[in-house]
Write a structure and sequence with these properties.
Protein name: FAD-dependent monooxygenase
Structural class: alpha/beta
Radius of gyration: 23 Å
Domain FAD-binding: 18-362
Distance between the termini: 29 Å
Helix content: 10-25%
Pfam families: FAD_binding_3 (PF01494), Rng_hyd_C (PF21274)
Strand content: 25-35%
Number of domains: 3
Number of helices: 11
CATH class of the largest domain: Alpha Beta
Keywords: FAD, Flavoprotein, Monooxygenase, Oxidoreductase
CATH architecture of the largest domain: 3-Layer(bba) Sandwich
Number of strands: 27
Largest sheet: 8 strands, mixed
GO molecular function: monooxygenase activity
Mean pLDDT: 90
Oligomer: single chain
Low-confidence stretches: 1-13
Length: 498
């Protein structure tokens, strides 16, 4: 992809072509574009807006997502632009009260190097991914509004409002909850309203003399007309001063939310100790109602749904953006492999693996939202970290070891990190390749080769390690154990079959 692809695309009767068309340059589309670019796969990322989304909306990155971003080469920049979550502080009017940790505190371990969620505004996450994409030679065509989509046995044709057209072998809808692509495909969404009360979310810059420290996430649960929360943001590109994310709920279900700067300023002056003079600027604002919905399908022919185009979450628990980035991570290596000659049936496993994950996480987000709305504070941790997500039931998964204890690592699980024999496992896995890992065994390993692999399978030997036990493990490009055995017996057959 060209860094200036926006100027290279033609208009009129001629048609540009690519292998993968990605519609939507949010976190999902950017993560997928980065993954494909590092694999050498031709892809084109288009976005109807004139620039990246400017708000903080999805402001938390869970530990598993941080591991994904390490593999994509951006975790250092992500950590530099963010911070740990602050403690919550409950207020009654102008009086501060109880403090507590919403996010469960946890220290890194050898197996889990990123143990806690990381606070970083969505706009900064996107900027980091976009910079990485440019570094890899890619870019985004902004101002490209999709007007039509058609597919046949050989590919997809997308047309745009400016008269241009693109022909691609595959397309991915990463264009959000109101996905134009999903609607063009006729795919419905099944879901429910999590909370009928409308909400406002905004980024506001406050003056230095405003009576709110940056050290806490402030909540007014008994504010007039509805709960208000102000979370300090660690950075906001292009702004000076202190920036907070405002989340305000309206007690009246029929309330009409006004996201104008004047209305946001008035809301803060009415419901919190801040006065209008403390509000230096409203940087971004939007209204919404909390919903949970799952697309009826994640694939129609050569078109795939990912991120909010496939599943819409309540913001509670910070799961939406994270699940979306991991959709991209699951799909990227499969698209690249099939485009290079792997069996097309490999792409069937995207929907097979990601639909159950999205459905489970929607349930978690909805439960947390309703508990919070009922006045039951819920500490966030454990299942929200997404480290336990796996694909044990996938058709790509083979576990050949008998009589494993319940706590044993199994095929389909996330492959843990660790350092043994001078090797850090996450560094051995890092990159677009498969990894054949021998742990505490001298078992003979077969050569795993395939013309569809852009990168050869890499073989790594380490001493015994309790996180794995002993045996042979084939690690997928997305960091999950695909095959596991006491020896390599049966591995070659598995490899031929997939």
């Amino acid at each position: 992809m060209s860094a200036e692809m926006g100027t290279e695309l033609s208009t009129g009767p001629s048609m540009d072509s690519t292998d993968v068309l990605i519609v939507g340059a949010g976190p999902t589309g950017l993560a997928l574009a980065v993954d494909l670019a590092r694999r050498g796969t031709r892809a084109l990322l288009v976005e109807r807006a004139e620039g990246l989304f400017p708000g903080s909306r999805g402001k938390g990155l869970q530990p598993r997502t941080q591991e994904v971003l390490y593999d994509l080469g951006v975790l250092e920049a992500i950590h530099a632009a963010g911070t740990r979550y602050p403690r919550m502080r409950i207020w009654e009017g102008e009086e501060p009260g109880q403090e507590w940790d919403m996010m469960e505190r946890s220290e890194p371990t050898e197996q889990v190097p990123c143990a806690e969620g990381w606070l970083i505004p969505q706009t900064r996450t996107q900027e980091v991914l976009y910079a990485r994409l440019r570094e890899l030679g890619g870019g985004v065509r902004f101002g490209a509004a999709l007007s039509g989509l058609a597919q046949d046995a050989d590919g997809v044709t997308a047309t745009f409002e400016d008269g241009s057209a693109i022909r691609a072998r595959y397309a991915v809808a990463a264009d959000g909850g109101r996905s134009t692509v999903r609607r063009a495909l006729g795919v419905g969404m099944t879901g429910e309203t999590v909370d009928p009360k409308p909400m406002l979310v905004a980024d506001v810059r406050i003056t230095d003399d405003a009576p709110l420290p940056d050290t806490h996430w402030h909540v007014w649960p008994k504010a007039p007309e509805g709960t208000v929360a102000l979370c300090p943001l660690p950075s906001a590109a292009g702004t000076d001063g202190r920036v907070f994310q405002l989340a305000a709920q309206y007690a009246d279900e029929a309330a009409v939310v006004d996201p104008s700067p004047e209305a946001v300023t008035e809301l803060l002056a009415t419901r919190t100790p801040l006065s209008e003079t403390h509000i230096a600027e409203v940087l971004w604002a939007s209204d919404f109602r909390a919903r949970a919905a799952l697309a009826d399908r994640f694939r129609v022919g050569r078109v795939f749904l990912a991120g909010d185009a496939a599943h819409i979450h309540s913001p509670a628990g910070g799961q939406g953006l994270n699940t979306s980035v991991q959709d991209a991570y699951n799909l990227g290596w499969k698209l690249s492999a099939v485009l290079a000659g792997a069996p097309p049936r490999l792409l069937d496993t995207y929907e097979e693996e990601r639909v159950p994950v999205a459905a489970d996480i929607l349930g978690v987000s909805t439960r947390i939202h309703r508990a919070s709305a009922a006045g039951t504070p819920t500490r966030r941790g454990g299942e929200l970290r997404q480290l336990g997500i796996g694909y044990r039931e996938s058709t790509l998964t083979r576990e050949t070891r008998p009589n494993l204890p319940d706590e044993a690592l199994r095929a389909g699980d996330r492959a843990p990190d660790g350092r043994r024999g001078g090797i850090r496992l996450f560094d051995a896995f890092r990159g677009p390749h498969w990894t054949l890992l021998a742990v505490g065994t001298e078992a003979e390993l077969p050569p795993l080769k395939d013309e569809s692999l852009r990168e050869p399978v890499r073989t790594t030997h380490i001493p015994p390690y309790e996180a794995y036990g002993r045996g042979v493990f084939l690690i997928r490009p997305d960091g999950y154990v695909a095959w596991a055995g006491e020896t390599a017996e049966g591995l070659e057959e598995y490899w031929r079959n997939i």
